[in-house]
From TrEMBL:
Residues 1-20 are annotated as: Disordered. The gene is HEATR3. It comes from the Eukaryota. It comes from Mustela putorius furo. Belongs to the nuclear import and ribosome assembly adapter family. This is HEAT repeat-containing protein 3.
Length: 680
């Protein structure tokens, strides 16, 4: 079997039609063309009001409204983007900030189509102009710290932060936006914003997210990077500040610098790679579960203390008002001033939550960067990207790869510098640790708090990303660098334990896809090195039976491949006849009945592996009537490829399927000789 190529990770993508499917709901309800959009019409009308305060309130209302999925079609019909765009350059700084906030939410909630429509409606022109004005404003913004504090809400940096988030969202979804980013020289502007990381980490994080997006597969932009720009990135990545928000910033910048590897001089590459992996290693060293427990407790104690402080100060304020009345002074001013002072003292109510989310996001991002470092230069998101082939020594497989199949089988590899750094920073060990289930105490704490509950999903995502990382490393590193045969067997036991400790594992699709991918890669490596495997036939069939009913194509491909790998090992052993028959019948049913040609092709390829060689395999193939079943299915498979292939599958997948079709013909001929020999 060939090795499966790992997918590259990007920021979580939107569905092509938007997350909300609002248009479909409207059509189903018969309201698709209705023009009465309630609050949308009123809010959009107020954007033209002569009062800046009214315009600001309207923008704030729209920022909330766009988060309601059914409202999006109505806003699109009323051309909300063209109405909000000019307000990015409104004379009022408050209006600019809230307009950018509304566009930020619209671009985040609307999906690919909305973002692409925003570019079509020329949102990039006022957005770039705003970024340029913010950049110029920062040069002349020499306010004192107290003045900055008083004007924080409408500050240039706050506006820049909102604008950067709009830019990031749009560039994530639109290649046209990235082209405009390149053409308008936005790089210099955003690097200036990033350079303010010592005093404004929120802005720096927004910039880092955007830079990680626009630097990926963008050779035109890479030419624009100067030494000062690279120095800004280096300074941010090597910042000595160790707060969780700075950890996230450094992780994102490390990802950006990895995207720039092609422009880094060869003499500096080893040093840069070491610096990147040092950042990622430090992030993964932190215990997310313990952090959740500690920060949640800190939040609880802070809120209790704040409530006590507020009670004391309010009591003092009442006493002061009584005293003011007696002295016939104006109590109202004293009361307002006193309340403002108390508000300034009270910290943000979600400080600990934000910091914890920053750490979890940093760990997820670090794992995604490691996966991307392991990928080839020509990544693909196809679910089945490479031809899984039987042992080349098998007679029926000789010369079976066409030219396109050979290209798909190009080996994955790491550069010497990355390979060495992975080992030096114990990256495999740290990834292994992250594959464990989230801390049960932390999960319990989060489940009891509405505001912390979303962190459970983030912790589960980290585990899944770690499993995908593990798949990559097992596929790429030498066995010795993974700890030797004994370590691989321990790892296989660990993955089996993870899997079967969850009675309902089949219901957790992300987890099942990730762990089946890791198992597939591990079992393939162990088989290629003749390391004995430790999954029992019962465990194997439990996994495959559950996985094959998954709606996720990737899961079904993985379990079929696992069966092929395990079966090919068992075929060379004595006393495995019944197990081979069970595997053969299972794979035959998948090949002939699975609705996906990708899965069917993988099942056929697994059959080629299992029944290619070995006395037990030959006997099993005859007893399950493998030859007659494949002969009957051969024309059906051929017809399905012809009818369904062009519309549903990519060129790479079709190339693989053509190889499987050709190998099926050869395998049938091989099985004819086997059956003839055993029955005469």
């Amino acid at each position: 079997m060939g090795k499966s190529r790992t997918k590259r990770f990007k920021r979580p993508q939107f569905s092509p039609t938007g997350d909300c499917q609002a248009e479909a709901v409207a059509a189903a309800n018969g309201t698709e063309g209705v023009e009465d959009d309630g609050p949308a019409a009123e809010l959009l009308e107020k954007l033209q009001h002569p009062s800046a305060e009214v315009r600001e309130c309207a923008c704030a209302g729209l920022a909330r409204l766009v988060q309601q999925r059914p409202a999006l079609p109505g806003l699109a019909r009323r051309d909300a983007v063209r109405r909000l765009g000019p307000l990015l350059l409104d004379p009022s700084l408050a209006v600019r900030e809230t307009a950018a906030g509304a566009l930020r939410n619209l671009s985040a909630c609307g999906g690919f189509e909305v973002c692409d429509d925003m570019v079509t409606k020329d949102i990039m022109t006022p957005l770039v102009a705003l970024l340029k004005e913010c950049s110029a404003g920062l040069d002349s913004n020499e306010m004192s710290p107290q003045e900055k504090k008083d004007q924080n809400r409408n500050s240039i940096e706050n506006i820049a932060n909102e604008a950067m988030n709009v830019l990031w969202n749009i560039c994530e979804c639109s290649s046209r936006a990235v082209s405009i980013f390149n053409k308008e020289g936005c790089l210099e502007i955003v690097l200036k914003f990033l350079s303010r990381f010592p005093t404004n980490v929120d802005l720096a994080i927004s910039v880092a997210y955007c830079l990680q997006t626009v630097t990926e597969d963008n050779p035109e932009l890479l030419k624009s990077f100067s030494d000062p720009g690279l120095h800004v990135l280096e300074s941010a990545m090597l910042s000595p500040v160790s707060s969780m928000e700075y950890i996230l910033l450094k992780t994102l910048v490390a990802g950006t610098i990895w995207n720039l590897k092609d422009i880094i001089p060869s003499k500096s590459q080893a040093e840069i790679i070491n610096a990147i992996l040092k950042v990622l290693s430090d992030v993964l060293d932190l215990d997310a579960g313990e952090t959740v427990i500690r920060m949640q407790e800190a939040e609880k104690q802070r809120l209790e203390a704040a409530a006590e402080t507020e009670d004391v100060l309010e009591s003092a304020s009442r006493d002061a008002l009584i005293e003011d009345d007696e002295m016939e002074e104006i109590p109202h001013k004293r009361k307002v001033r006193r309340k403002t002072f108390v508000s300034d003292l009270l910290p943000s109510t979600d400080r600990e939550l934000r910091e914890t989310i920053a750490l979890l996001t940093a760990q997820q991002t670090a794992l995604e960067i490691i996966v991307n470092m392991c990928c080839t230069e020509d990544p693909s998101d196809d679910e089945w990207e490479e031809l899984s082939s039987s042992d080349e020594s098998d007679a029926f497989m000789e010369n079976s790869f066409s030219e396109c199949g050979g290209q798909l089988l190009s080996p994955l590899c790491l550069s010497h510098e990355v390979h060495t750094a992975f080992t030096n920073y114990l990256i495999p060990k740290k990834i292994f640790e992250k594959t464990a289930f989230p801390n049960s105490t932390a999960v319990d704490i989060c489940s009891r708090s509405p505001t912390w509950k979303s962190l459970i999903r983030k912790m589960n995502t980290i585990q899944c990303r770690a499993l995908v990382c593990l798949q990559s490393l097992v596929s790429l590193l030498d066995v010795d660098h993974l700890g030797g045969p004994a370590a691989l067997q321990t790892l296989a036991q660990h993955l089996s334990q993870l899997l079967f400790s969850q009675p309902d594992f089949a219901e957790h699709v992300d987890f099942l896809e990730a762990i089946s991918s890791a198992l597939r890669a591990l079992l393939q490596t162990m088989a290629s090195k003749n390391i004995s495997q430790c999954m029992t036939p019962n465990q194997l069939m439990t996994l495959c039976t559950a996985g094959i009913h998954s709606g996720n194509t990737g899961v079904r491909v993985n379990v079929v491949s696992i069966l092929g790998i395990t079966g090919s090992v068992l075929a060379k052993e004595d006393g495995t006849l019944e197990t081979l028959k069970t595997i053969g019948c299972f794979l035959l049913e998948v090949a002939t009945k699975d609705p996906s040609l990708v899965v069917a092709g993988e099942a056929l390829d697994a059959l080629f592996d299992v029944f290619a060689d070995g006395k037990e395999a030959e006997r099993a193939s005859v007893q399950i009537k493998l030859l007659s079943a494949l002969k009957e299915f051969q024309p059906v498979f051929k017809m399905k490829i012809r009818k369904e292939g062009r519309g549903k599958y990519s060129p790479d997948q079709l190339c693989v399927l053509d190889n499987v079709k050709m190998n099926l013909r050869r395998f049938v001929a091989y099985q004819e000789t086997v059956e003839k020999r055993l029955t005469t």
